Amino acid sequence: xxxxxxxxxxxxxxxxxxxxxxxxxxxxxxxxxxxxxxxxxxxxxxxxxxxxxxxxxxxxxxxxxxxxxxxxxxxxxxxxxxxxxxxxxxxxxxxxxxxxxxxxxxxxxxxxxxxxxxxxxxxxxxxxxxxxxxxxxxxxxxxxxxxxxxxxxxxxxxxxxxxxxxxxxxxxxxxxxxxxxxxxxxxxxxxxxxxxxxxxxxxxxxxxxxxxxxxxxxxxxxxxxxxxxxxxxxxxxxxxxxxxxxxxxxxxxxxxxxxxxxxxxxxxxxxxxxxxxxxxxxxxxxxxxxxxxxxxxxxxxxxxxxxxxxxxxxxxxxxxxxxxxxxxxxxxxxxxxxxxxxxxxxxxxxxxxxxxxxxxxxxxxxxxxxxxxxxxxxxxxxxxxxxxxxxxxxxxxxxxxxxxxxxxxxxxxxxxxxxxxxxxxxxxxxxxxxxxxxxxxxxxxxxxxxxxxxxxxxxxxxxxxxxxxxxxxxxxxxxxxxxxxxxxxxxxxxxxxxxxxxxxxxxxxxxxxxxxxxxxxxxxxxxxxxxxxxxxxxxxxxxxxxxxxxxxxxxxxxxxxxxxxxxxxxxxxxxxxxxxxxxxxxxxxxxxxxxxxxxxxxxxxxxxxxxxxxxxxxxxxxxxxxxxxxxxxxxxxxxxxxxxxxxxx
Length: 649
Fold this sequence. Notes:
five-stranded antiparallel beta sheet
């Protein structure tokens, strides 16, 4: 009977916590994200553009031929393909819901229901954790709000949607504390949490497995039994690896995903009391934003004023038992030290200052860059701090009252961010947060291509380009993903350039360049078989240099500049210790251009370089530096030529 009553209390706590988690979701985001046919907030971007990446990955996968491993789409990073795990499209859901989406037809997005479920489970497991340290059901329900309205959860939801599944961390912690109390380690829930984590987001793996390792180590040392925990861990790892393999996480030879390495997205030492979120959102009514360095913003971990007040009270209340608690949970403390050290990284920052950069071998930096956003790995520690604040208050006389007071303070403190997130979601249903810059009528004409080649560089408005390609059934070699094979991409791009140099442009492919100089180097051999030129956005912030086979002779709107003999020159946007955006600093009379047949033809017989109605005499043309043309002018300050359309006489 006692076990039955205990089970009822557990179920009641979980249900109340889950219900409160749902209420938090609905209060902040409303019901509009739950309409699977509503993808406005996915296309327009919510808080950041990242959700466009997540949605585009799903669109490409949904239309791709089914194969194995699952969740690999050959339409991205073509022709090799990539797993949508690396577009953060929640691969497990993508695989499970693809048949449903295709049966229903039309628009289908699952990010809203995924996030609602995450909030419900966050509240449910938060209440269960609280129930381990407090028998009062009302107190546990109130405490669950500290988890379901957690600043780090609100910061990620719909921004990095898959990272909203922080209930995985709470579930692992719940299993840890239950296992310690019951003297058990074979917990099916813990096993399942570790396997599920790889199907949602790989960053959860080191978090949940760290907690699992702590439980196994403490059990093995206490009971002097190592074989059982080792087998449990081995089987769990094997099942995790199998699911990861089946979902395509091991597909290909992904080696890169950008220039940022481990240490850039590190955790600032002020993070627990710094309420500054992305895009200037402040998570506190009382505390001011603190300075940050580099990518510290991604390690956001503001505790909230209610928790910040409760924590020291809890520490003082438990001061006589604190040493014993730390000894009892020695392995958990050890893995938390490791997770915290990894989150802080070797680039130690405090406020707006880098205190020290510890030397690390390049091999270790490369290895650690697998989880280059290392500040996230602090989340298990963060949630134990929240739990400690709750547990300390629960042990005070009239603990339920203190807990409820702390929750009220917490919610009032973070309410500006909750309101902002609510307003942002409402706005996302009315207008795009990040509207597309593919505004020229050129893009309508280009929608008929089968392939989109990013020949060089990172394209402007790359995520809208990805959506454009997905909507029009195109493949793209652009790996707009967290991981891809950088060397393979560069080899493919070199092959595309070599083919263009031979006058061979695929008739069903649209070629895009980031840099005008590289475009001018490649365009001449194919100019008569394609529409070639510059396409810009209406506000001029985005530019694409394009080769569009088969569209030669067509006329487009004023946002397009045709490549012909009247095409303007521009300075190379080159900056180093001597040059500033294509102007030599020492004299400010010499400018540089990327060498190309077109640029040479314009400059070699010219006497003047002209801009904005003024003509500047060319005194010297120097091509001794391969790949560059340097022009010295009779001019006082050539910096006035930055971003100007130049002609010659």
